[in-house]
Design a protein that fits this description.
5 helices
Length: 187
């Protein structure tokens, strides 16, 4: 037995549970953000044209060019890089004409924002994709038996600010229902 009173520690005073408040605040903030995104955020793609006139006129032109490119002999059947260069050159000429034909359709676009988007798309075609295709043709034509296969690969240069131009070309074509106006798959 003990002779005196038993000392019991005083219960700790409950303070403000800052950790819980922080966690609840974060959870509520995330919930509000996702609710806004789900219910109120704009859903339009900024690359979608306000009118479908351009896309409707462009798609058959692209489909015809893609069919001509698809009819070229596949590169895997070429005996030499120079043989391959012949097909790549022809595909590049077809693609260059395709872009010129698509530019001729600009008169169908009245909206200034659509024209700005379209001009950026043509810049990707002309200053990115076609430049790289012509460089590829030149590499194939200059190749020798000693040329390393890695030096004969099609190289996409990231020349234009904002990432790889092939993604932007394909993205604009797809969002505007022009599935044939994507980058040709012949290389």
């Amino acid at each position: 037995m003990t002779d005196g009173p038993i000392d019991h520690p005083e219960p700790a005073r409950a303070g403000i549970p800052w950790g819980r408040i922080a966690v609840v605040t974060i959870i509520v903030s995330l919930l509000v953000m996702w609710l806004w995104i789900y219910l109120y955020a704009p859903r339009d793609n900024p690359d979608r044209f306000s009118s479908s006139a351009y896309a409707e006129a462009a798609e058959p032109i692209c489909a015809a060019a893609q069919a001509r490119i698809d009819a070229l002999p596949p590169g895997r059947f070429a005996d030499t890089p120079q043989d391959r260069a012949v097909g790549v050159r022809e595909g590049t000429e077809i693609t260059e004409q395709l872009v010129a034909d698509l530019k001729d359709l600009r008169t169908l676009v009245a909206d200034p924002d659509d024209l700005r988007i379209l001009d950026a798309w043509f810049e990707d075609w002309e200053e990115g994709y076609l430049v790289d295709r012509w460089a590829h043709v030149e590499r194939l034509e200059r190749a020798t038996l000693e040329t390393d296969d890695r030096d004969l690969a099609f190289i996409i240069q990231e020349r234009i600010e904002g990432g790889f131009y092939t993604r932007r070309i394909d993205g604009l074509a797809n969002v505007n229902d022009m599935p044939s106006c994507v980058v040709p798959g012949d290389i």
